[in-house]
Amino acid sequence: MSRQPARRGAASLQLRIIGGEWRGRKxxxxxxxxxxxTPDRMRETLFNWLQYELPGARCxxxxxxxxxxxxxxxxxxxxxxxxxxxxxEVTRQLQANLALLQAEHGRVEQDQATRWLERQPPGGERFxxxxxxxxxxxxxxxxxxxLLEAGDLLSPEALIYVEAERELRTLPVPANWELHRHKSAGxxxxxLYRRRASAAGAAAGTDS
Length: 208
Description:
By secondary structure, this protein is an alpha/beta fold.
């Protein structure tokens, strides 16, 4: 997740792939203010939730940041992953990490998440799994969720993983997203939704 592009220092930080083909591989990501990977323990929980859904899945990692979620998904058998982030330094490192891993099914896009969603052509690719981890307290979650539905970017029973600030009792997700799994970790609320294709996509809250 990429919060703010401000630089903290010259050094790079590292994350570790925790499962799948590249298990144990360490990858660098920029030392930028507000950029933090989903912690190993939460990633382990999330990918346990997803273990039967990942093989062959088409994935979208919005606000990709370190790429911890998207790269983990590729390591565990996702068919493809698009990693979207607005920061040039972040996207350069993501490209370098994909090259290092020889990951042919990953693609990096430098853009703001909402603008990228708005620019997707009608009838284009639909995603089976979306990682949605926007900067906190900036009102981006609601617009991203709405754009995913309005743009017809989700497969009929897509899974959407949402990280949000824990103090939010109601998340602004569409009414046809059913809460499938939930866990809190520190100040973060971790939520896995499953989409119901038959229901209207009007925005509504879900207690977590």
